[in-house]
Amino acid sequence: MKTSALSLLVGLFIISFSSAYAQEAPPPSPETLPATMENPAPAETEATLQTDGDVKILEPANSQPVGSFTSYYKKKSALIKATDGTNINMTYFWYEPETKPADGQTLPLVLVLHGSQGYAESAYHLIKESVRGPYPAYIMVPALPQGHRWADPGKLKPVHMLPDTITLMKKIMMENPIDPTRVYVMGCGTGGTGAYGAAQLYSDLFAAAVPISTTWNHKETDNMNKVAIAAFHGSEDEFFLPFNSSDTITMVQRHGGTAFFTLFEGMKHDCNSANIYTPTLWQWLFSQKKTAAQPTP
């Protein structure tokens, strides 16, 4: 497979990919994680919005965002004040490193935003031993109720839950030993749109963003130069045209930002390709750090 890419770290290392497009592995044993995650039909809940007094309870549209490996994560919920002033109980899936950090030590946080089918493929690849071993980190996978999205270009609307997600994330950051200079966001498809939105709307919070197979408006990038961005896309993506993402990256570069775009020739819309989740990506991602962290209120 040929790639057209800007290297993730110019002068330090270059991206190389195999000539064969990775195929999905057969159903794995619990002890061995395969190259890619199988996505069964989303396990939808019957009701995604319930009420308990003055609290709205938001249940995920897909209760298995990491497929059969969702059990590696703890299903949690937290009460927050939404941007519209209502009290909501948001569901999220939480991964803690096997070895807790020593007193005074902090670890990175990776926010993974799932796609339209409720799957967070990046959250699967992050828990592989080859990643969680050298790069211990907390991982947060928030879950959207049916009919909601993270963000889109243009003005945020009630259907968009990125602001409430950030409120929840800040709450979690206050309760765990998280390094505020090493907070990252990843997502594919509509989750990747959310990752772009996070880099634009919350640029003082995130050190790096990884939008995959997604889209954004290149005219809405004025804050993204504060966030290191590595974007990936297939040339044959049938849902999101590659040029929207590549134009976005080009504009971020013009604003003086650190941004890279990798195009996989012949690849369709794919959130799960092992060619994306390489040691090069993880080395780059976990090396990103804010020079001055935004305080977490």
Element order, helices and strands?
EEEEEEHHEHEHEEHEH
CATH class: Alpha Beta
State the CATH superfamily name.
Answer: Alpha/Beta hydrolase fold, catalytic domain
Number of helices: 6
How many domains make up the 3D coordinates? 1
Q: How much helix is in the residues?
A: 10-25%
Residues in β-strands, percent: 15-25%
What is the CATH architecture assignment?
A: 3-Layer(aba) Sandwich
Structural class: alpha/beta
Indicate the radius of gyration in whole angstroms.
18 Å
InterPro entries: AB_hydrolase_fold, Plant_Biomass_Hydrol_Est
Signal peptide: 1-22
Keywords: Hydrolase, Signal
GO molecular function: hydrolase activity
Give a structural overview:
The protein has helices at 121-126, 129-132, 162-175, 190-201, 242-254, 279-287, and strands spanning 3-5, 49-52, 55-58, 74-81, 87-95, 107-113, 138-142, 178-188, 208-212, 228-234, 259-264. It has one domain (3-16, 33-287): Rossmann fold, CATH 3.40.50.1820. Strands 1, 2, 3, 4, 5, 6, 7, 8, 9, 10 and 11 form an eleven-stranded mixed β-sheet that branches. The protein contains six helices and eleven strands. It is globular. Mean pLDDT is 85; it is low at 1-31, 41-49 and 293-297. The chain is of the alpha/beta class and 297 residues long.
